[in-house]
Amino acid sequence: MTTSWLDIDPSSDFSLANIPFGVITREIAQSPHVGVAIGTYVLDLQLLWGLHPEKFQAVHEALTTEIFSSPTLNAFAELGRPAHRAVRAWLQDLLSIDTSCPELLRDNEEARKLALIPQRNVRMQLPMAIGDYTDFYAGYHHAHAVGVMFRGVQNALQPNYTHLPVGYHGRASSMVVSGTPIQRPVGQILLDPAGPTTAASRRLDIELELGCFIAKPNALGTSVNVADAEKEAIFGYVLLNDWSARDIQTWEYVPLGPFNGKNFATTISPWVVLADALEPFRTTGVENKTPLQDYLKEERRENVFDIHLEVDLTTPEGDTTTISRTSSKHLMWSFPQMIAHHTLGGCPLRTGDLLGSGTISGPGGAKGGECGSLLEITEGGKKEVLLYGMDARTFLKDGDTVTLRGSCGSAGAKVGFGECRGRVYTARR
Amino acid sequence: MTTSWLDIDPSSDFSLANIPFGVITREIAQSPHVGVAIGTYVLDLQLLWGLHPEKFQAVHEALTTEIFSSPTLNAFAELGRPAHRAVRAWLQDLLSIDTSCPELLRDNEEARKLALIPQRNVRMQLPMAIGDYTDFYAGYHHAHAVGVMFRGVQNALQPNYTHLPVGYHGRASSMVVSGTPIQRPVGQILLDPAGPTTAASRRLDIELELGCFIAKPNALGTSVNVADAEKEAIFGYVLLNDWSARDIQTWEYVPLGPFNGKNFATTISPWVVLADALEPFRTTGVENKTPLQDYLKEERRENVFDIHLEVDLTTPEGDTTTISRTSSKHLMWSFPQMIAHHTLGGCPLRTGDLLGSGTISGPGGAKGGECGSLLEITEGGKKEVLLYGMDARTFLKDGDTVTLRGSCGSAGAKVGFGECRGRVYTARR
Ligand SMILES: [Ca+2]
Ligand SMILES: [Ca+2]
Ligand SMILES: [Mg+2]
Ligand SMILES: [Mg+2]
Ligand code: NI
């Protein structure tokens, strides 16, 4: 990988190898539109288009003015993988030290000043209009650990777990972008076996997940085969924090699954890392010894990504502790498998639909500091996790901030997500 | 109630007392837009607006040209209950024999020819853009009967059932309007205890439900109290068939709830009966002896509607049998209670979001012919339901058509929904 004419810190998530897409609002009164992250900058694609429409049009014939002045990435996603690939490659060239068109930006101070904005000066928006959000449960070590907690080690996993990617329909309306305040939910909780109380959740938790956005839709009554899912269906990835109120969830979830325990907010990181950008980081997931149904069989064994993931907890006092370090490779099911399963019966996926991986924890569990939820770290709230400054938590306290981070690759060529962050605010009275 | 200058059959669901709203496409090349049903006609509101914009604007100040030329009812719903009430009242006047403005339609043959179209000449569209769909489980007799089947009579209802309206997130992308073909889903089913098979569902079922569309949205982090939910939140109602593949559902649903067993299609009736139109048909629901949490307490005991509901099964040969007759009063939770519960933790509901009541069955169960699903009618597939012509079913056969109907009120002043219909087609190979 070549270097950029821009000064990019080698530790940046947004190297030339990445080029993630997002929706920005600039300080000046302007409607939300599309940009890409590069180092500490955003390259404003609406503005760049305005300067050189003919250059963009030459990159891919389907590009139009509306694509990058849209308030979501849906129109861009809908163009399909070849278009995403062409635009990313062209932007990589444009930002390379030996760019084939130096006159556009590298050697054009005026254009640089207009189109390159420090990230601190833009406001990030939710990147996609999300029609439906589905949350899977593919994090094997999480599913196993939680199963042991609830049903004992013999029955930790339900009989279906290794046969199909278990998932459930989540709530799209409460999907929020990193930085959005998270209000502790009120709900019915069972403090006394005699009956429930309506109160603020006392067991507010996080779930570290990888999110996957759909590019290519399928029509009602059709299914997507697993090979096509891998080649065409996926637009890109984000980090996802599936905030969970464990006490609300425990009381409500039989027999139809999680509801108010999960639907008060789900935070995603603002930059969509394109599917192509993660290709070099493929690896094998958690081994599944169960013979797979044909529709779930993949050609490549390297069906997940080795993204290094971290969870930081920052106390109201401002002290930060990394409470988890793991990898997105600890999944038993790949996103193409999830897509093949989701559409098996003919359910339509639409451009902009979001799939969550399920909570990701490593095999080391609580002892190894590899858990994607406080539920696991604290063994159901029984043990405290020690924080910097001799503070401790079982579940989240008002004023706590949780930040997910994720990246792959080596210094100078990192492909990362930036932050997926949310601060907890006191419950409504 | 006065009569109309239009010739309306007294048995019509679409009397002057109703005035339900829908989205139509006319035979002539035209984009979808808003109409109301009256007798066997549709009154085209886009066209009527074009003839007399000043009349409409006088009805309610928030009305604009876009409202009725929109391809969904969302913009109209968003205006709020007072606007819906004013427009419905004005249309009732316009269509009354003693209308205050006879020159607009009653005595204007040219305008009548343009604006009143036989229903057979229009194509009905999905009436709303549905952001999120939530399916509740408020049909007490259904929940109890299914619980007995799965867990025995002692544990038929889960401990939470009488404390909160149990619900789960459904799939919005597969919501279809009455008449849309229903393809039998393929899925994983457990024919052999040794492991699942991927095959067409053998236990395709229906669920008779009432659907409720949201008018007034609430912001993230806010909740809607039950009194406001009743006064302001609801736009109107439709019939809903929550098609269910029981064999897929049984294998997949632990621990996170229904997924592919439900997400392949959900059919709704095309005409949205406004909340005001159902007001005269309020009654008390299923008694709940459990003390309620404050946020679920309602002032009025008449919190549900007595809508007479029927399920017709038409065989491929064309013979029709009514397999169920019941009432929407058999709910233990009202829609305002569902809304109060759904938003308790701050989950935002948006204009156009849809809530399903859960399957509605009467206390008479299978013997009384009051079941909202074949699962109950056939006691889990153990007994056949006899059809016209000595045909019989446990679950649905390819080529079967299921039609839900619902109405209240007496002849000449009926408030009904029309049909919610779907025909089953052979599974994809
Ligand atoms: Ca989750
Ligand atoms: Ca249902
Ligand atoms: Mg969530
Ligand atoms: Mg359904
Ligand atoms: Ni006029």
TrEMBL record, chains A, B:
GO molecular function: fumarylacetoacetase activity; metal ion binding
Pathway(s) of this molecule: Amino-acid degradation; L-phenylalanine degradation; acetoacetate and fumarate from L-phenylalanine: step 6/6
Residues annotated as domain Fumarylacetoacetase N-terminal: 17-127
Domain annotation Fumarylacetoacetase-like C-terminal: ranges: 137-424
Cofactor: Mg(2+); Ca(2+)
Residues the entry annotates as binding substrate: Y137, R151, Q249, Y253, T359
Catalytic residues of the enzyme: H142 (proton acceptor)
Cross-referenced Gene3D superfamilies: Fumarylacetoacetase, N-terminal domain (2.30.30.230), Fumarylacetoacetase-like, C-terminal domain (3.90.850.10)
Residues that bind Ca(2+): D135, E207, E209, D242
One GO BP: homogentisate catabolic process
Catalyses which reaction(s): 4-fumarylacetoacetate + H2O = acetoacetate + fumarate + H(+)
UniProt cross-references to Pfam families, sorted A to Z: FAA_hydrolase, FAA_hydrolase_N
Record keywords, A-Z: Calcium, Hydrolase, Magnesium, Metal-binding, Phenylalanine catabolism, Tyrosine catabolism
Residues holding Mg(2+): D242, K262, T266
Family of the protein in this entry: Belongs to the FAH family.
Protein name: Fumarylacetoacetase
